């Protein structure tokens, strides 16, 4: 059986990054995803400020964030197998439904004054599990609705939308809204955004199913699916090295940003909630500009080199985040980190879709998530207690320097310069 949408390209001409919008299913999909990303951006701030309101302790926020990370990592391999076996549209609709229910529950409990830390932990874990199914399904559906030459542009669109809404507009709006009202109001708005996104997803057309004349072999066992995906990753040096680099990057970087940054903003700036939201906003704007710059041109000839430079050296400004008491310098530092992160992510997403077989893309995408995020719950869990015995300055300095070293090692061990020459994509 083969499943696909209408993939007729838009008329030639115009700005390259806008080409995918000529296809109806993509327009509806990216509109729904944009609203969901906006909701996720708001939720990051709402969650942190709600936990601080309930219990002003980094350990409590570490617990809630760990549950989110554990849900994501624990189910992402299952999500990848599901994306290769089930209808991706149905998976994404189910994920959005779960998001609506989880956030609505938090909003109701908070409004009634019955919300507790364990409620937040359960909701975070549920959202993490939902995300584990979303990304592999989204990655696997794009090559089915878009022609190959439009994938870089589509990844660029997401590379702009995600940081703008998730890391800029969403956090900024949430910071202002919660600062002026209360976290429960923020949760209500997040639930509404997820609900509108769900309506748009339902409005998309189901994939057409056509019968292929040739005999189709029976699907292998689920564990064999997973084994095949793992074997492909291990046999592909640039892919394996990048995933291992990403796992170490997440271990030293994600925890400090997600858990400690809200407390830095509260301690160093007068209006902590609003400052935290705007700091994340500068990161998001930088990510959007980095993604837009890459997606508006052809794939770099030295694409692996550019990607590793962006992710490795791009972490250095985190040293400034840990040491400065100036909002301006912190904003500049997070902006630079965002630019390099956004540019690298667009190249990475396109690499997966161009160099990984379509039939295996869901599994490899889930392995990407699993390996690169395996240490995310660990980072969340240890950084809160660690901040009580080690200064935040030292923690952020480590987060800025370690990626440079491990990025260089991955680049050389996997012989990425030779690989990108032997496998041109531009």
Write up this protein.
This protein has 426 residues and is mostly helical. The protein has helices at residues 24-54, 58-85, 88-111, 117-145, 151-180, 183-203, 222-234, 237-268, 272-295, 303-313, 318-323, 327-355, 361-373, 376-386, 392-413, 416-422, and strands at residues 2-4, 208-210. It has a single domain, classed as Up-down Bundle (Growth Hormone, Chain: A). It contains 16 helices and two strands. Strands 1-2 form a two-stranded antiparallel sheet.
Characteristic terms for this protein:
426 residues; mainly alpha; Growth Hormone, Chain: A; two-stranded antiparallel sheet; 16 helices; disordered N terminus
The CATH homologous superfamily is called: MFS general substrate transporter like domains
Structure annotation, total helices? 16
Number of self-contained structural domains: 1
What summary fits the major beta sheet? 2 strands, antiparallel
Return the CATH topology: Growth Hormone, Chain: A
* Class derived from helix and strand content: mainly alpha
> What general outline do the C-alpha atoms trace?
globular
Radius of gyration (CA) equals 21 Å
> In the CATH hierarchy, what is the architecture at level 2?
Up-down Bundle
The order of strands across the largest sheet is: 1-2
Average pLDDT score: 82
Subcellular location: Cell membrane
Protein name: Tetracycline efflux MFS transporter Tet(V)
Pfam family, one: MFS_1
Transmembrane segments: 28-49, 61-83, 89-109, 121-141, 185-203, 238-264, 276-296, 303-321, 327-352, 364-382, 394-414
């Amino acid at each position: 059986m083969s499943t696909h949408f209408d993939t007729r390209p838009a008329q030639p001409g115009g700005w390259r990054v806008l080409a995918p919008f000529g296809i109806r299913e993509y327009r509806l999909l990216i509109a729904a995803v944009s609203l969901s990303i906006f909701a996720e951006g708001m939720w990051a701030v709402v969650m942190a400020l709600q936990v601080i309101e309930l219990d002003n302790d980094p350990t409590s926020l570490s617990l809630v964030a760990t549950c989110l990370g554990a849900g994501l990592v624990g189910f992402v391999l299952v999500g990848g197998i599901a994306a290769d076996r089930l209808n991706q549209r149905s998976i994404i609709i189910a994920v959005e439904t779960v998001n609506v229910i989880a956030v609505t529950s938090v909003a109701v409990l908070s409004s009634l004054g019955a919300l507790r830390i364990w409620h937040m932990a359960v909701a975070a874990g549920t959202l993490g599990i939902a995300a584990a199914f979303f990304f592999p399904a989204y990655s696997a559906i794009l090559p089915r609705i878009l022609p190959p030459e439009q994938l870089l542009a589509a990844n660029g669109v997401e590379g702009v939308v995600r940081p703008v809404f998730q890391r800029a507009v969403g956090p900024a709006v949430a910071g202002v809204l919660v600062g002026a009202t209360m976290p429960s109001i923020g949760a209500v708005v997040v639930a509404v955004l997820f609900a509108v996104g769900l309506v748009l997803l339902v409005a998309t057309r189901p994939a057409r199913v056509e019968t292929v004349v040739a005999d189709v072999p029976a699907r292998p066992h689920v564990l064999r699916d997973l084994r095949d995906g793992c074997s492909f990753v291990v046999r592909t040096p640039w892919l394996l090295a990048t995933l291992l680099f990403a796992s170490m990057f997440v271990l030293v970087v994600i925890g400090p940003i997600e858990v400690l940054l809200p407390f830095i903003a509260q301690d160093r700036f007068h209006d902590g909630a609003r400052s935290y939201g705007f700091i994340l906003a500068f990161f998001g704007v930088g990510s959007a500009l980095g993604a837009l710059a890459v997606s508006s041109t052809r794939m770099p000839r030295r694409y692996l080199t550019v990607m590793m430079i962006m992710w490795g050296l791009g972490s250095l400004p985190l040293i400034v985040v840990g040491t400065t008491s100036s909002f301006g310098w912190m904003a500049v530092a997070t902006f630079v980190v965002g630019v390099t992160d956004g540019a690298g992510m667009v190249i990475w997403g396109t690499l997966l879709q161009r160099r990984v077989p379509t039939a295996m893309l869901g599994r490899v995408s889930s392995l990407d998530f699993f390996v690169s995020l395996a240490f995310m719950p660990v980072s969340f869990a240890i950084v809160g207690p660690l901040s009580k015995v080690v200064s935040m300055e030292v923690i952020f300095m480590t987060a800025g320097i370690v990626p440079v070293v491990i990025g260089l090692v991955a680049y050389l061990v996997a012989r990425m310069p030779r690989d990108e020459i032997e496998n041109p994509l531009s």
